[in-house]
Amino acid sequence: MTRISDEHNVSAPTPGRQSITTVIRPATYADAEAVGVLLASALEAKYRPTLGRRAAAALTNVIRDELRTPPHGYWVAERGGSIIAAAHLATAEDAPAVGLAQRLSQIIGWTRTIWALSALSILAHGPLEDDEAYIGELAVAAHARRQGVAATLMGQLDVHATALGKTRLTLWVTHDNAPARALYADLGFSERARRTWRVGRLVFGSPGALLMEKRLIASAEVSDA
Ligand SMILES: CC(C)(COP(=O)(O)OP(=O)(O)OC[C@H]1O[C@@H](n2cnc3c(N)ncnc32)[C@H](O)[C@@H]1OP(=O)(O)O)[C@@H](O)C(=O)NCCC(=O)NCCS
Q: Which of 9, 109, 140, 143 sees the fewest Cβ atoms within 10 Å?
């Protein structure tokens, strides 16, 4: 059973480990390094070819800056004092990203930064619609997978997006990411568009990506049903 402990935090007993609780909460400034390391490792196919071997440090430098000023869209799952999952939810109301290139270049240099930003633009979603909440990142630590962590975290993103007045969640997933595609199908996402790419295949090793969408049900609709 998932318990909502207050407006922002969700606690869920960890399946099979009843004494350890997993807490879902907005990320804080102190989480920056853990989130950067987790994203670099879990999303290695995206960040290693673009940001290089210093991907974790580069991501940490960017995320630290973003976490300085809430609301920043980062959510984490914490268990036993460690960050075991992270996600980012973006909306049309978010402040534009300022200083991203500079933060990256401080760690990986300008040449690599220019390469990374142009390669990562292949994966970009484009401007967000007013009714849309977009999941740009989702990662669970390898040792914590298949325990319902992503499903619980995504459930909290549903709640948060609905509270913001959004009616749909969107995300891109690469064709060959079978675990993530199974997760999204399980959670009720359906395919809206497909992208195939030649450059993306060379950089990210995947033939393309799918745009997935899930309609959100406002609590008023649930009680009417
Ligand atoms: C994809 C990912 C986020 C799933 O996280 P997770 O915490 O292991 O997922 P959950 O335990 O919540 O899984 C919920 C359901 O999704 C499906 N699923 C998740 N991982 C799966 C896998 N490896 N194979 C098949 N189905 C899977 C199952 O239906 C699962 O339910 P079940 O365990 O009862 O069968 C995780 O594997 C990950 O971080 N991968 C690397 C980063 C990544 O690819 N992020 C997504 C980018 S779009």
A: 143
- pTM of the predicted model, to two decimals? 0.92
Residues 54 and 105: beta-carbon distance below 8 Å: no
Q: Is 39 in the pocket of ligand 1 (CB under 6 A)?
A: no
Q: Quote the CA–CA distance of 119 and 121 in Å, as a whole number.
A: 5
pLDDT tens, the chain, 225 aa long: 333 333 345 566 655 545 689 999 999 999 999 999 999 999 999 999 999 999 999 999 999 999 999 889 999 999 999 999 999 999 999 988 889 999 999 999 999 999 999 999 999 999 999 999 999 999 999 999 999 999 999 999 999 999 999 999 999 999 999 999 999 999 999 999 999 988 889 999 999 999 999 999 876 565 554
For the domain bounded by 3-224, which CATH number is listed?
3.40.630.30
> What separation in Å is there between the alpha carbon of 106 and the centre of ligand 1?
33
Ligand 1 lined by 149 (C-beta under 6 Å): yes
- Domain range summary for the chain, segments of one domain joined by +: 3-224
Whole-angstrom CA distances from 4 to 12, 50, 80, 83, 122 are 9, 38, 18, 19, 37
Cα 140 to averaged position of ligand 1 atoms, centre (Å): 8
Q: Is 180 in the pocket of ligand 1 (CB under 6 A)?
A: yes
Atom number of ligand 1 nearest to Cα 151: 12
